[in-house]
Amino acid sequence: MPISAAEAPSGASLLDVAGLEAGYGKIRVLHGIELRIGAGEVVSLLGPNGAGKTTLLRAVSGLLPWTGGEARLDGASLRGLNPREVARRGLVHVIEGHRVFTQLSVAENLLLAGYDLPRGERVARIEEALAYFPEIAAKRHDRGGALSGGQAQMLTIAQGLVRRPRLLMLDEPSAGLSPVLVDRVLAVIAQLRARGTSVLLVEQLIEKALAASDRVYALAQGRIVLEATTDEADLPHRLERAYFGQDVPTPLHA
Description:
This protein has nine helices and ten strands. The chain is α/β, with parallel strands linked by helices. The strands form two sheets. The chain has a six-stranded mixed β-sheet, sandwiched between helices. A hairpin with a 2-residue loop joins strand 4 and strand 5. The chain is globular, with a radius of gyration of 18 Å. Pfam families: ABC_tran. One of its GO terms (molecular function) is ATP hydrolysis activity.
C-alpha cells in the first residue's frame, strides 16, 4: 500500500489505471500500478531513476503492451490500442528526448503533428498551440535545426498540444533547460490546467513539480509507494521516505 492515500479527485476520473503490469521481455518493471487523474488535474509522478516512470507512461500511451491490469480513459479501455489510437482518444504522450525534424520549419513540424486532421482544423490547432509559446511562434518559418535547445523543447510540447489533448503526459520536460525556461514550461502547465486539460508530469525537479501539481505519486521499484495531495504539511518527509526505500512494499516473490 502507498504511504498515504489522497482523496479521489472530484467527479469521475479521466484516467484510471488499476493493477497495471508491464515490462520488457521477461523482465517485469511495473507491479500492480494504481493511479487516477481527474479532469483538469495536474498530477506529478516522481521517483528515482529506474523506478519505472517512463515505462508507466509508455504502457498507458500504447508504446508498450501490458501483461496485466487495466487502464481506462474516461471509462473506455485503452487495452490493445496503438499510440495513434490512444492520441485520438485524447491522451497525448510527449516523450523524453523527442527530437524535432531539423530540416523542416517550425510550422511544418506542427503540421505533421496534426497530419490526420482536416486542413482548416489543423491550422486552427497550430495557432492554438503556438499561442502558448510566443518564442517559437515568432520563428514559425525557421528550420527546426535552427532552434535553441529550449525552443526545440517548446516545439515538442506544442506538437502534443496540436492534438488538443484531454490528458497530456510530459516525460521530463525540463531536461536540459535553463531555470528560466523550466519556469516557462511550468507556466504553460498552469495555463492548461486553467483551461481544463489534465497533465501527468514526470519530473526530476521535485520542488518545481510539486508547485505545479494538485497531487503526487511516488514510484519505486515499479510500485506506487506514495499518493498524496501537494498541500500536505509532511509531504517532504514522506517523499524522502519513499525515495530512500523505507516504505517500498516487499515483493511477494523476491
